[in-house]
Amino acid sequence: METTQLSNGVTIPMLGFGTYLIDSKDVPAAIKTALDAGYRHLDCAHIYGNEPAVGEAIKASGIDRSDLFITSKVWNADQGYDKTLAAFDQTLSDLQLDYLDLYLIHWPNEDDFELTLDTWRVLETLYQQKKVRAIGVSNFSEDQLKQVFEMATVKPMINQIERHPYKVQADLGQFDTDNDIVNEGYSPIGHGHLILEDPVITKLAEKYGKSPAQIVLRWQIDTGFVVFPKSSKPARVKENFEISGFSLTADEIAEINGLDQDKHLNYD
């Protein structure tokens, strides 16, 4: 699987496995299926409520820690200096890890952005203490990123945002790239929300002998986005990983970009 480099030189796999909405009882089988298929990048978060189960699954895998890339996120209720430190310690404990590869602020605090800036200071401290290999944000706008830039001693290395063919995020994605921030896209196939039935996608699937989901994931990676599709179905987990060996042309990428409706399928 392709990788890309963050601004500090850390390498991140461009295709990962998402753990959102996987019930704890289903986590062991889902993680085993993903790791057996070849995934080495797991996207987690405290608010998903399944980090203890993910930690057990990682431990049971027997895969060397250095071969895995593990992300987690601090939730809104845990923002602020002391609360973020406690939340990070809880996540490490739940995942049974000594460090994280990436730690993100899950959402900007809409009511008190100063609290979010305090949280960023904690992430910088954790990074300097080498408890995390990279730090970043999620769901931050261009204006919010600029506010972080003004006070940061370490700039965000990742911005994780909703991204699929109906929400291309061209302007924000370009702003991130221009500022050495790697883009990550969640809901990468849009929950299958008619996107996989779109004629543009199905036509390309037929051309390349791939599934519509594989075409959309290939588009994500070909346009520089790190993604982590989620599924609890073993066949789909494996299928989502099998997107090597072909690339879309510039015209095909432009055609998919043209599907943009600026349509949020999640919270705006």
Automatic annotation (TrEMBL):
Q: Which UniProt keywords apply?
A: NADP, Oxidoreductase
* Organism for this UniProt entry: Levilactobacillus brevis (strain ATCC 367 / BCRC 12310 / CIP 105137 / JCM 1170 / LMG 11437 / NCIMB 947 / NCTC 947)
Q: Which GO terms describe its molecular function?
A: oxidoreductase activity, acting on the CH-OH group of donors, NAD or NADP as acceptor
- Provide the active-site residues from the annotation: 48
Q: Which PROSITE patterns match?
A: ALDOKETO_REDUCTASE_1 (PS00798), ALDOKETO_REDUCTASE_2 (PS00062)
List the InterPro entries hit by this protein, alphabetically: AKR, Aldo/ket_reductase_CS, NAD(P)_OxRdtase_dom_sf, NADP_OxRdtase_dom
Question: Where do the annotations place substrate binding?
Answer: 106
Protein known as: Aldo/keto reductase of diketogulonate reductase family
- SUPFAM superfamilies per record: NAD(P)-linked oxidoreductase (SSF51430)
**Source organism's superkingdom?**
Bacteria
Q: List residue numbers at the site (Lowers pKa of active site Tyr).
A: 73
Q: Which CDD domains match?
A: AKR_AKR1-5-like
